[in-house]
Amino acid sequence: MMGFNIEEFDFASFYPRSEEYLSNHEQFLIIFKELLLGMDNKNKEYWYQTYISSDISILLRSSLLILRHMSNITGKEKLDLLKSNNIKILYISFKEELFWLYADIFPKLEDDDKKIFLNEIMNEEKLSNNFTDESYFYQKYNLLIWLQRFDKSNQDIISNINSIKEKYDYFQPRENPEKSIGPITVRWGDAQLPYTDTDIVNSLEIIIDELLSYEGDGFERAERITLIRKLEKICSENESFREKLIELLIKENELNTDLWRGIIMSLEKSNLYEQKLIYTFEKIFFNPLVVDIYNLELSRVIFSIVNTRKSISDNLVDFFYEKIKLLWNDSSNTEEKSLGYMTRALNSSKGNLALSTIKLIEISIKNSDEKCLKDSFKVFLEQMLKEEGYNDSLVVILGNASFFYSIDSDWCEKFILDKFKSNDDEILKMAWSGFVHQSYLYTEFALVFEPIYHEAIKNIDIFEKDIRKLIFKGYMSLIFNFSEDPMGDYIHNIFSGDIAEETLELFYFEL
Fold first, then answer.
1. Cα torsion at 361, 365, 367, 369 (round to 10°)?
2. Angle at 506 between CA 503 and CA 509, to 5 degrees
3. Do the Cβ atoms of 298 and 348 come closer than 8 Å?
4. How far apart, in whole angstroms, are the C-alpha atoms of residue 472 and residue 477?
5. pLDDT beyond 90 at 404
6. Higher pLDDT, residue 402 or 12
7. Rounded distance between C-alpha atoms, residue 458 and residue 446, angstroms
8. For residue 191, how many other CB atoms are within 10 A of its CB?
9. What SS3 class is residue 363?
């Protein structure tokens, strides 16, 4: 530990690729902590004396950790050391380290030193003008509540708590006083959020500004996405909280915050009755920015709801259909081109909107007990199919060829099956990638689709290996279930032209 200048050391050099350092920060901190605490006293002393004045957060925090575990200096000496290095008692950035240090020190101080420390807490001025008097007194209140846990009979603590409560009678103890509200601290090896579920639910109006501005890099503080996921969890479990958060964001005109993402994704796990579901979605769609920015999330949530809900009325079908058409205007494809076509469709707003539309068609048919494709659906499907350029929704719509043929064979042949006869290899790849995952063969459809299968087999090498395998699997089904003359009708197609050896191996395996 003494052989290099730690302030110039690159922690990421522990990893072959620097990005692995960030993705493994929790494990890194755990190892770093064990290395620090495993040093002998001489090196520990060198460490805290050297880095307690460091400008690098991780080094200063590590020195506080070491200082807490040093037994050869008194608690008063530790407090004096903090004061001499201008580390304020309520230094929020290092709150958890400091609070645990105080927990060890305070009970062992002489009575006079306890009084001095408590007076310093009460008299300490705000660290920044960003703090209101209320929020800074709440920090003092939290520290006093924390110290009381370790010195329950201390009358001076009780007196100071009561003094604060006289001015702020609504202050309540937090479940974890040692964690921050405001600028964030980090736990060693566990970058936790500073808010518990109870804190967020009970103090939403007080901390909403902090939630809006919260930031974290995942190394020294929990990432912002962790906060969004926590809000998602709370909203999914607490309907009234979700309403409260929505109303607060609208009231404060916070229409461009990612807190909306947590609200939206919570609906995927909620079991609201239909009118409440419509009411909540209307509140979200009231904000055009949310519809634009969180188009993918809304598309996924709608598909999840229509795909998993046991019963959906025609009213809800019509409602979601209108929202889907609205979302389509700002929808997009998956940008990652290295993924398979079906995977890209499942991870894009265009793909999810197509999936939702087909599910709504299925529900509408079930509700009416009339097997047909309504004109209103046809218009939108044709709009998606005719869109210029690559379109993830094609994979979904073309892939459901067997479904569309079962409800409107003429429309299907004109708008769906015709695409399977395209001279464009990418159209064929999209169509078949969707087909092998979503369609099935039944007698009426197999008779119409058989010639299309023959052509696909003749050009089998244009497809990726996993798609070729699934196409062969379907072809085997046709051979054994529908053909009276496999050798004459099917086998020669496989061996026509130049076929790759790998493709032949796939055929023999499926056979």
1. 180
2. 150
3. no
4. 9
5. yes
6. 402
7. 18
8. 21
9. helix
374-404 burial, b if ≥16 CB within 10 A, otherwise e?
eeebeebbeebbeeeebbbbbbbbbbbbbbb
Give residues with Cβ within 8 angstroms of 214, minimum separation 6.
Answer: 184, 224, 227
- Contacts (Cβ under 8 Å, ≥6 apart) of 236: 242, 266, 267, 268, 269, 270
pLDDT of residue 9: 40
User: pLDDT (tens digit, 9 = 90+) per residue, 479-496?
Assistant: 777 666 655 555 555 555
Backbone region of residue 189 per phi and psi (left: phi > 0; alpha: psi in -120 to 50; beta: other values):
left
Q: Determine what percent of the chain is predicted with pLDDT higher than 90.
A: 40
The DSSP string of 383-399 is: HHHH-SS--HHHHHHHH
Answer for the pair 323, 343: CB distance below 8 angstroms, yes or no: no
d(CA 160, CA 26): 38
Summarize pLDDT for 89-124 with one digit per residue, the tens. 887 677 788 888 898 889 899 999 999 999 999 988
Confidence of residue 438 (pLDDT cuts 50, 70, 90): very high
* Extended beta strands in 78-223, E state: none
Structure tokens at 146: 């924390």
DSSP codes joined into one string, 399-437: HTHHHHHHH-HHHHHHHTGGGGG-S-HHHHHHHHHHHHH
Q: What confidence score (pLDDT) does residue 510 get?
A: 57
Please return the burial class of 414, using the count of CB atoms within 10 Å of its CB with bins 0-12, 13-18 and 19+. Answer: exposed
Instruction: Please state which of the ranges 62-76, 97-111, 371-385 shows the lowest mean pLDDT.
Output: 62-76
Least confident of 134-148, 295-309, 360-374, 393-407: 134-148
Pull the structure tokens for residue 250: 């609208």
The Cα–Cα gap between 182 and 164 comes to 19
Distance (Å, rounded) from C-alpha 362 to C-alpha 372? 10
Q: What pLDDT does residue 22 have?
A: 41
pLDDT at 185: 34
Q: What CA–CA distance (Å, rounded) separates 133 from 143?
A: 16
Q: Transcribe 55-95 into DSSP letters.
A: SSHHHHHHHHHHHHT--SS-HHHHHHHHHHTT--TT-GGGH
pLDDT over 70, % of the chain: 82
Cα–Cα distance for residue pair 26/275, rounded to 1 Å: 44
